[in-house]
Specification:
Keywords: Membrane, Transmembrane, Transmembrane helix. The chain is mainly alpha-helical and 280 residues long. It has helices spanning 3-24, 30-54, 68-80, 83-93, 98-118, 128-150, 156-171, 173-179, 193-218, 227-241, 253-273, and strands spanning 58-60, 121-123, 183-185, 245-247.
Length: 280
């Protein structure tokens, strides 16, 4: 079986786990599930940006691209957007105990071993115990955070949660566009274009999301929500003028801003109708 199908299989299993959890816990609002799924997804993204993107700890071998970092990005997008948040949602929503968390951690290790033996994944300096520790802590954090947002109040936990959600909504289309060969970021932070572009835009949007959350979540007046659209356009326009944002294959600034504005509008809708504290 081709390498990519193993990744697709885990992605489908992750989405199946998510659907199962939502069905079993029908008393919980769908919006709460959505927000937590995106939150836990973002936790894995940031973690992998550090251990994979910055420290090259392991490598995904999807078999789709010849460039190793394009393969890493694709593998990352599939697994960290489906399987990881899917299991986190199951553990958190069902309040599974340490025994189940231990079993899920063992399952991750077995899957890692299988992928290594199949040659579709490789360790550089990464070790099995690091995976076990990371997954175990990830599940514990998931349970803690899900309890917090299940009885949410305005303040730190709500704004922090939406920071993670905002980053995912804002960032998700960018690596997809990069992999499709439509645009990249010419910063030359490292030799590889895919890695350099990812390092730049990931860092850029971590900061940009602070502004997004500030004007959408912290400020109450509706007109403050217009500011993120303005800052997004100004920021991307400047990047074009500085020859940092480079378009290819008929892509242009209009398409990029269409994607950007759609992402911002989607985040505004999610924030408006999710995690609404109950009136006392």
């Amino acid at each position: 079986m081709a390498s990519i199908y193993w990744y697709y299989l885990l992605g489908i299993i992750g989405l199946g786990i998510t659907a199962f959890t939502v069905y079993k816990k029908r008393d919980i609002k769908l919006s709460t599930f959505l927000v937590f799924f995106l939150f836990s997804l973002c936790v894995t993204w940031i973690g992998e940006f550090v251990v994979l993107g910055l420290f090259n700890s392991y490598a995904y071998k999807t078999g789709i691209y010849t460039n190793p970092w394009a393969q890493n990005i694709l593998g990352h997008l599939i697994l960290n957007s489906t399987f990881y948040p899917g299991t986190a949602l199951l553990v958190a929503a069902c309040s599974l105990g340490y025994g189940w968390i231990f079993l899920i951690t063992v399952l991750y290790l077995l899957l890692e071993y299988l992928f290594l033996k199949l040659g579709i994944y490789e360790h550089h300096w990464w070790k099995y115990y690091m995976t076990a520790l990371a997954i175990f802590i990830y599940q514990i954090i998931s349970i803690f955070w899900f309890k917090k947002i299940s009885n949410i109040k305005y303040g730190f936990y709500r704004i922090s949660t939406f920071y993670f959600v905002g980053f995912v909504v804002l960032h998700f289309p960018i690596p997809v566009i990069l992999l499709l060969g439509k645009q990249y970021y010419n910063v030359n932070w490292v030799q590889d274009m895919y890695l350099s572009s990812t390092m730049f835009i990931f860092t850029y949007q971590l900061v940009e999301t602070l502004l997004l959350v500030l004007f959408v979540c912290a400020f109450e007046k509706w007109y403050w929500s217009i500011v993120p659209f303005i800052t997004a356009f100004v920021g991307q326009f400047i990047l074009v003028k500085l020859n940092i944002l480079v378009f290819q294959d008929g892509w242009n600034l209009f398409y990029t801003m269409l994607v950007y504005f759609t992402s911002i509008a989607l985040f505004i809708l999610i924030e408006k109708y999710s995690l609404i504290p109950e009136k006392q």
